[in-house]
Amino acid sequence: MSQPQTVKIGLLGFGNIGAGLVDLIQQNRQAYLQRTGLDLDVTIALVRDLSKSRLYGGVELTTNPSDIYQFRHVDIVVELMGGLEPARTLVLECLRRGKHVVTANKSLLAWHGKEIFRTAARLKRSVGFEASVCGGIPLIRVLNSGLIANEIDLIYGIVNGTTNYILSKMHQDRLGYKQALAEAQEAGFAEPNPHNDVSGIDAAEKLAVLAGLAFGVDVLPNQIPCQGIERLTLEDIRSAEEMGYVIKMLAYGKQSGRSLDLRVQPTLIPNSHPLANVANENNAVFIHGSAVSDMMLYGKGAGRYPTASAVLSDIVEIARSGFVPSRINDNQYISKLTTQKSRFYIRIDIPDRPGAIGKITTHFGKHKISISHAAADLVKRTGSRGRVTILTHDVSEKRLQKALSEIEQWPDLHSHPLAIRVF
Ligand SMILES: NC(=O)c1ccc[n+]([C@@H]2O[C@H](COP(=O)([O-])OP(=O)(O)OC[C@H]3O[C@@H](n4cnc5c(N)ncnc54)[C@H](OP(=O)(O)O)[C@@H]3O)[C@@H](O)[C@H]2O)c1
User: Is the Cβ atom of 22 under 6 angstroms away from ligand 1?
Assistant: First the structure.
């Protein structure tokens, strides 16, 4: 074996994922050396609080960021602190100081990727970000190199483990939304403040990164139409099941000619679709490429070791290859209401009165929206609350939104109508 190449690694952040990375390297250093010819060594880590007890030792700790980028012997800096600032400033400074960077931070890339990739390209430094989307699934490498021969026209999937866990609990254990969320928090799959996950922001940030790779567009997360899961009830889950579907939170991107449709939303998936069986915290992504046709990647989208595994793969690739240019996208994405048609599940909460279902179907008829299934649950529940659920035939989102916006003006409505796309 030729002389091993030592790779000195500095961490910006030594929390959950940082600990996983250090543990993997300390446990398997010899095995990695044999496999890669690289002697990986995490030497220094930036933290906020020096007095906090750490799971793994053998790493010098500092609260001074310049110790990381001024450290002569650090070859690769791994950003594992999360958030936008100071992560953005520190990553840019590391690149300027000649370091290659690996990051697991999808928010940073979704909002500031262009600036970071441009800076890296100018300075001939690499930015690895395999861990930023779908944790342990090597999705970024598949898009960046494995499928380089393909035009990708479709990419969609379950990219947020928290919402998939909550929806799985609602389906499998018949829990209401709040109960399922509390269980996800207890199991460590949801943050104490779950807003970014349940509202779809996290998935939109991941989709922004994926859309850059798959479609070559420069898109910010707030340009992606986004619908959360907070309004879903156990009754929606049951109604979907009765119609032969499960509800999944999907990140979806489809290119048709010059039009690109990006969205994050709960979606009714037919029971026969492979995504219907992706349960709990797992992730799965479907890709259609012009040469390979369909493929699906499945696995753990988060967690200490799956994410550290992805970080480590970037470190090895950069240590082997040096400068690997990142893709920079100049095509701006313009979001618009799609003219593409699909079926929709609609729930309208209205008072328990005779003729309620007729009023709704007549209204939809007036808007030329045909209905394939309608059910009324006008049994007396709280007060005189009732509920009508409808499955439409194919309709454009524009037409449906118009019909629903008029229903919203009805004085007797209990809440805004809920519309969920059918895959
Ligand atoms: N957790 C996952 O499953 C997962 C999956 C995929 C991607 N990621 C991404 O991986 C990154 C790290 O996640 P994590 O779960 O490891 O986070 P974490 O446990 O909260 O760790 C963050 C680390 O960064 C340090 N830090 C934060 N702000 C700092 C500041 N201003 N100055 C100095 N140090 C600072 C913290 O220091 P102290 O320890 O002193 O507080 C801590 O060591 C995030 O971008 C996250 O989105 C996480």
Answer: no
Q: How many beta carbons lie within 10 A of that of residue 355, not counting itself?
A: 8
Supply angle C-alpha 120, 95, 23, rounded to 5. Answer: 110
Which tens digit of pLDDT belongs to each residue from 201-244?
999 999 999 999 999 999 999 999 999 999 999 999 999 999 99
- Secondary-structure class of domain 5-132 per CATH: alpha beta
- pTM exceeds 0.85 for this model: yes
From 60, 256, 80, 76, select the one nearest 153 (Cα to Cα): 256
Question: Over the stretch 280-308, which tens digit does the pLDDT of each residue have?
Answer: 999 999 999 999 999 999 999 999 999 99
Q: Tell me which of 3.30.870.10, 3.40.50.170, 3.40.190.10, 3.30.360.10 is the CATH number of domain 145-300.
A: 3.30.360.10
Distance, C-alpha 16 to centroid of its chain: 19
248 catalytic per annotation = no
48 lines ligand 1 (CB under 6 A): yes
Alpha-carbon span 100 to 287, nearest angstrom? 29
pLDDT digits (tens, 9 = 90+) for 117-129: 999 999 999 999 9
Task: Kindly list the domain boundaries of the chain, sorted by start residue.
Answer: 5-132, 145-300, 341-422
User: Which residue of the set 106, 206, 254, 300 is catalytic?
Assistant: 206
CATH among 3.40.190.10, 3.30.70.260, 2.30.30.40, 3.40.50.300 for 341-422: 3.30.70.260
Rounded Cα–Cα distance for residues 147 and 327 (Å): 14
Closest atom of ligand 1 relative to the 48 alpha carbon: 40
